[in-house]
């Protein structure tokens, strides 16, 4: 069969699928807004073109022939492909709308994501955002979440994802603290300072630094530990010591000069570094509301300053 002939018979193929699904010429005619005789003629044209009988017909039932079963499976693929085309094209014409539920670590949500959301909501008045600030592991399907941002070097399998930005960490303090207590010149100098660290695990007080091929681990101490980046930022701004912070949390204070990076020639390494990945369940067609949000957020975060 030539390509032109197969294109002419597309309607007959779709009608054949409907007949098999309904097991009735009359019901197919009702659903298609046609007549039973027109449906019968469409099936006959398809059988003549293919040179084979597709259906065995009795007074009570329609039954697929062996060749009809094979043709039906191919025709179903065609109908599904046509439906996918219509759904895909609809994404370009339907105004994005609906609720987007986003799970995001607390610090990332507060300092990195939230500042961009008012503009997004203004751009898309029919989209609502539900921001879930939580550091626990969530299952996107079971918890009914559309998107999740996670800090990881390797996104989990079974999910689609897009890397948004690298998450770097540094240590910093106020100029006042450093003027009073001295500026560390080497990681080992930190032993003489008050250090504000995470404090969740024993290794959180062992700070790791790298310079080219040289790696150093320094045990630090301090009178204040906190497992919240916002609290550690506030403690540093109140001159309580040298704090470990993600760059995106400390950035504005660094730009304003209220905080100064310590040991800038050394790379501060933590177990909480990695890429910020935007994750979502696998799907062939991303809904318009998610598509515009993913693109918007990726563009905004790509323009964020990075730690050099």
UniProtKB/TrEMBL annotation:
GO terms for molecular function: DNA-binding transcription factor activity; sequence-specific DNA binding. Pfam families: HTH_1 (PF00126), LysR_substrate (PF03466). SUPFAM superfamilies: Periplasmic binding protein-like II, Winged helix' DNA-binding domain. Residues 8-65 form the HTH lysR-type domain. The keyword Metal-binding does not apply. InterPro entries: LysR-type_TF_proteobact-type, LysR_HTH_N, LysR_subst-bd, WH-like_DNA-bd_sf, WH_DNA-bd_sf. It comes from the Bacteria. Gene3D superfamilies: 3.40.190.290, Winged helix-like DNA-binding domain superfamily/Winged helix DNA-binding domain (1.10.10.10). GO terms for biological process: DNA-templated transcription. The keyword Transcription regulation applies. Keywords: DNA-binding, Transcription, Transcription regulation. Belongs to the LysR transcriptional regulatory family. This is HTH lysR-type domain-containing protein.
């Amino acid at each position: 069969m030539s390509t032109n002939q197969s294109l002419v018979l597309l309607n007959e193929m779709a009608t054949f699928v409907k007949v098999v699904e309904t097991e009735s010429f009359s019901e197919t005619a009702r659903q298609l807004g046609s007549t039973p005789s027109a449906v019968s003629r469409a099936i006959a044209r398809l059988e003549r073109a293919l040179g084979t009988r597709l259906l065995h017909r009795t007074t009570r039932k329609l039954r697929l022939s062996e060749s009809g079963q094979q043709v039906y499976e191919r025709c179903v693929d065609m109908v599904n492909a046509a439906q996918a085309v219509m759904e895909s094209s609809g994404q370009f014409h339907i105004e994005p709308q609906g609720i987007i539920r986003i799970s995001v670590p607390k610090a990332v949500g507060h300092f990195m994501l939230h500042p961009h959301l008012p503009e997004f909501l203004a751009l898309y008045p029919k989209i609502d955002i539900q921001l879930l600030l939580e550091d626990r592991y969530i299952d996107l399907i079971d918890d009914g979440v559309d998107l999740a941002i996670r800090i990881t070097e390797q996104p989990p399998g079974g999910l689609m994802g897009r890397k948004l930005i690298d998450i770097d960490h540094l240590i910093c303090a106020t100029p006042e603290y450093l003027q009073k207590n001295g500026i560390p010149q080497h990681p080992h100098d930190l032993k003489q300072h008050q250090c504000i660290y995470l404090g969740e695990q024993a290794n959180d007080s062992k700070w790791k630094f790298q310079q080219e091929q040289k790696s150093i681990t320094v045990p630090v101490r301090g009178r204040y530990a906190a497992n919240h980046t916002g609290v550690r930022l506030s403690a540093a701004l109140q001159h309580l010591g040298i704090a470990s912070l993600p760059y995106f949390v400390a950035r504005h204070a660094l730009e304003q000069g209220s905080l100064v990076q310590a040991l800038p020639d050394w790379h501060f390494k933590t177990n909480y570094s990695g890429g910020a990945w935007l994750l979502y369940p696998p799907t062939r067609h991303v809904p318009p509301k998610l598509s515009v949000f993913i693109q918007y957020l990726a563009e905004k975060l790509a323009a964020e300053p990075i730690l050099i």
